[in-house]
Amino acid sequence: MTNEFGMKHLLAQCPNCQSDSLYCGKIPTSIRDMANKEVLFCKKCKFVVPVDEFKKILSCR
Description:
- By secondary structure, the protein is α+β, with helices and mostly antiparallel strands.
- The protein has one helix and four strands.
- The protein starts with 7 loop residues before the first strand and ends with a helix.
């Protein structure tokens, strides 16, 4: 299932609010760090992080 931006709904919880409304894909943005990159996005709490950065965070644990 995808939303209007073509983002895919994930069967995972948001790392910020623990909600089941986590999506992955590219979003239109003018933020240079996130332009043309895949991001994780929570529809409920508006948590946004590039997938590459999130992988780095997880590998440091």
